Amino acid sequence: MNVKIEEQHLRFKISEEELTTLLAGHCLHVKTGLLDKALVVTVNPQGRGKNMEPKLVLDQKDAYLNLLVPPSCVQKLFDLGKNRDGLVQEINGVSITFQVDMKDACHR
Q: pTM for the whole thing?
């Protein structure tokens, strides 16, 4: 999983293998060291409702960026097939993109 953070934009880019993991109901995790702390990014495919929901949690040691994705959104991403745009959603002035990395796509 690659996560790109830009001004007013979060992009979560996953591989087809990671998409299969999400379809099975399992979370994705990536941890990156930042100075004396870590950024832990999670995509959780058990979100509720119809929309993706990002959450940022800070504690003494680490920062956690969680993307809650309803199963219907994971299925929709799968159904899009080879599509560069993926799913895009605006939340409180921040654009969230959730997509499959087309460089890694090999058989859809």
A: 0.88
